[in-house]
Amino acid sequence: xxxxxxxxxxxxxxxxxxxxxxxxxxxxxxxxxxxxxxxxxxxxxxxxxxxxxxxxxxxxxxxxxxxxxxxxxxxxxxxxxxxxxxxxxxxxxxxxxxxxxxxxxxxxxxxxxxxxxxxxxxxxxxxxxxxxxxxxxxxxxxxxxxxxxxxxxxxxxxxxxxxxxxxxxxxxxxxxxxxxxxxxxxxxxxxxxxxxxxxxxxxxxxxxxxxxxxxxxxxxxxxxxxxxxxxxxxxxxxxxxxxxxxxxxxxxxxxxxxxxxxxxxxxxxxxxxxxxxxxxxxxxxxxxxxxxxxxxxxxxxxxxxxxxxxxxxxxxxxxxxxxxxxxxxxxxxxxxxxxxxxxxxxxxxxxxxxxxxxxxxxxxxxxxxxxxxxxxxxxxxxxxxxxxxxxxxxxxxxxxxxxxxxxxxxxxxxxxxxxxxxxxxxxxxxxxxxxxxxxxxxxxxxxxxxxxxxxxxxxxxxxxxxxxxxxxxxxxxxxxxxxxxxxxxxxxxxxxxxxxxxxxxxxxxxxxxxxxxxxxxxxxxxxxxxxxxxxxxxxxxxxxxxxxxxxxxxxxxxxxxxxxxxxxxxxxxxxxxxxxxxxxxxxxxxxxxxxxxxxxxxxxxxxxxxxxxxxxxxxxxxxxxxxxxxxxxxxxxxxxxxxxxxxxxxxxxxxxxxxxxxxxxxxxxxxxxxxxxxxxxxxxxxxxxxxxxxxxxxxxxxxxxxxxxxxxxxxxxxxxxxxxxxxxxxxxxxxxxxxxxxxxxxxxxxxxxxxxxxxxxx
Length: 762
What we know:
By secondary structure, the chain is an alpha+beta fold. It has a domain at 20-30 and 465-587: Aldehyde Oxidoreductase, domain 4 (2-Layer Sandwich). Strands 3-7-1-16-13-14-15 form a seven-stranded mixed β-sheet. It has a five-stranded mixed β-sheet with strand order 11-20-19-18-12, sandwiched between helices. It has a five-stranded mixed β-sheet with strand order 22-23-28-29-30, with helices on both faces. The longest helix is centred in the last third of the chain and has 26 residues, at 532-557. 57% of the residues are buried. The model has no long low-confidence stretch (mean pLDDT 95).
C-alpha cells in the first residue's frame, strides 16, 4: 500500500468472489430476510379480465376479516397522490389500477395485515365488477387495431435518447423506429437472389429464484425503501417525482439480489410499498410469489419479417427488417429496446442497403421489458436462421458465407457508425475451430440423426448514461468503494474491487464495496445491458486515480518518497492514525442520437458486444426429441477483468437461453389468462437438460476505449444459442423451425409435415 500505487496486476487474474463465504454460509443480506418493527405485509388482489372498465371494487368482506389492518385501492391512492403513474418511457402505469384494467393479473387492490396468511385470505375475499372491453394480444394485429390499450400516452422524458417522444392518441404503437441506408427496394429488383422469411419468438419470464420483494418505512418527511432492485438511483428519482418530493427525502437501499436478468429494473413494487407506508405510517413489505412474477414483467414476444438481396457469389447487398415487439399493457423500457436493439436487426453483416422498421406495441398481456440481451436474442434468432437459409439456398458453407459478409474493423454499421473493437470475425473463427467445422462429423444412424449449427450476434450498449463512484482511503491504508452498481450474481463487487486494487496497488481483499444506498452511494443509472464494466469501471478508475494523485501530492508535501506506505503518510500528516483521502469519478460516454427521419448516427454506441454459439444436437425422428450434446459459447469482452467469472457468465447465459429455445413459454388462453404460472408448469433448465460438453470462453481482444481494455459480457452468451440449435436441427433432419420454443411436439410435427404425413389434431 504505497503512494505510487505499484501495479499489482489484479486486473486479468481469476479471483474468487469476495462475497462467496457470506453467501454459502447464509449470512449474505437479502431483502427477503428483512423484518422491520411493526411491519405490515401486503397481498395483492389482481384483475381477472384482460381489458375492462372498473365499475366497482367490493372490499367489505376483506375489511371485516379479523386481523386486517387496511385495504387500499387505486382510488384511495389517487385521493392523496394526484398523479400516481410511473414508467421509464411513458408515465402509463398506475400504482394500482385506475379507471380500467389492461391485463389479467394487474394489481387492483392491496390488503395489509401483520400476518401474511390473513392478508392473503382477505385478498381472496375482494371482488370486482368490470365492463369488459375488446382485447388485443397479437403484436402485429395490435399495431393497426382500433381497440386501444391506452387512450393517451404521456412521455416520461427520463432518457436523453427518448426526449423526442411526444404524446400519442388512438394508437397501440408506443414507438416506431425507422432506419434507411441506401435503397433496399431498388437493390431487391436487381439482386440475383432474394430470400424472405418470417420468424417469431414467444413471451417468457425471467424467473429469478429470489422473487421480487420491496419494503418501505416512512416518516412525515421521508421514506426509506429496501428493495431487490437493479436500479436504485432510478427508483429514488422516480418515486420522488411521483410523491412530489425532493430526492433527499427518498432513500433506496439494495443488498444482494438473488438474480435479476432485467426483471428488477426501474419501478416494480417500490412505488406501491412507498405510498402504502406513507398512507398507513407503518412499514410495509410485499414479497411476490413465483406466480405473481409472471404478472409483473416478461420478455417481449416478437414477429420479425426479414428479406435479403444477394449476389451470385454470395454477397448480401440489401436487407429489409420489420420487427414488432409485444410490449404488453405497459411500456416499461420497451421503447428503448425497440430503438436500441431495433437498429441492429440487420445483423453483424456488411450490407450497403438497409431498411429497418421497429415497433413497440401495446397489447393486453403482462408488461414486457428488459431480459438478458435487451431484445437482441429475439433478433439474432431471426437473422441467423435467415443467414443459414441463404447459405443453404446458395449451396455455400454457413461459416464461409458468414465470413464473406461479416462486418469488420473500420467498416460502417447499418446506422453509419464505424465498427471498432468488435471481434465478430474472431468469435466466428474461434467457434469454427472449437466445433472442428472442417473436420469429419458423425451424422448418426437409425432413428437418431445428428447435426451441428453455428450463429453469431452483436449488441449496442445502452447510451447515454451516467455513472459516479467514490473511493475512500482510510488512515490505516484500507480502502472503501462507494458505488450504486448492484451485484445480482454477476460478480461485480469483486471485479470493482480488482479495479480499485489495480490503481492503488492493493489486493482486492483490501477493498470494501459498499452496497447501493442512495443516501451514501452516488448515482448510477442502473445495472443493466452489460454497461457496468464499461461505464462504472471507468468512473471507479477515475476516482481511484484521483486518490492516487492526492496521495502522491501528500507524499511530496511531506517530503517523503512516493512509495511511502499510505498509513505512514497519514501518521506524518496528522500525528496519529486519522484522516481520509477521497476521490470522485464520473463517466458519461459520448453519443449522437439517431436522426429521426433516417435512423442514422455516427456514434450509436460506446462499444459493441459480440457473442456466438456452436451446438451439436441429436434428433430422435420417431419422437421429435432434441438432445443438445455440445454447446460452445464464445464472447468478445475485450480484456477480461476476472477471467473465470467471464467464462461462467458465458456458459450461464447459454444455459438460460437453452430454456428459452427449447421449452419455456408463457401460455395464455383466449381470454388472456396465463395457464402455466408456476415452476411446476413453466419449465426452466435443469441438469438433465444441459449438454455434457458445455463451455464458455472469450477471444483475445481489447476494447481500446474501455477501462483496462474491458467491456461487458453478461449478455453475450445468449445471442447465438437459439439459432445455432435451429440450424443444427435442420442440419440433422432437414426441417426449418421458424418459431420458439422448439419442443419435441413442434419438431415431430415438422418432421411429419416434411414427409407429407400430416397429423390429425385429437
